[in-house]
Design brief:
mainly alpha; two-stranded antiparallel ribbon; elongated; 2 strands
Length: 148
């Protein structure tokens, strides 16, 4: 598939795909007779996985490390597994922190449950203070040439 099709299928820009290729995050694409990139469909799954690593907060250096190990073959499986396990532990810690924050938000929101629905004319002033007020005094301006 051409780079435009790959971009459409992955949501990445063609510029990002070329960048990922240049830094070694995705393998170089074969070139067709006209010299255009021709990507294998297997790159879709790899880009999807990279997207998950990115979403879960793995820095690009970590993704590059994993990609390099992957390219080195089966001999690096244990190291790849260890890298992913360490990242998984970090993601779990982040999820736990987010859960704690979510509970705090829920508690705060529940604290507002005692409030009665307010209409648009509601005021915090007591009824006896809602008398008609005089408008604030404003300074009079004179028009040039107006001599009162």
């Amino acid at each position: 598939m051409k780079i435009g099709e790959l971009a459409a299928l992955t949501g990445l820009s063609a510029h990002t795909i070329r960048y990922y290729e240049r830094i070694g995050l995705i393998p170089y694409a074969a070139r067709d007779a006209s010299g255009q990139r021709a990507y294998d469909r297997t790159v879709l799954e790899w880009i999807g996985f990279l997207g998950r690593l990115k979403t879960t907060g793995m820095p690009i250096q970590g993704m590059l490390r994993y990609a390099g190990l992957r390219a080195a073959g089966r001999a690096t499986e244990a190291e790849r597994c260890a890298l992913l396990m360490a990242h998984r532990d970090a993601v779990r810690a982040q999820v736990a922190e987010l859960q704690t924050c979510l509970l705090a938000l829920d508690k705060k929101i529940d604290g507002y449950s005692h409030m009665e629905p307010r209409n648009e004319h509601a005021t915090d002033e007591p009824a006896h203070a809602r008398t008609r007020r005089k408008p604030a005094r404003t300074r009079q301006t004179h028009v040039v040439g107006d001599r009162r």
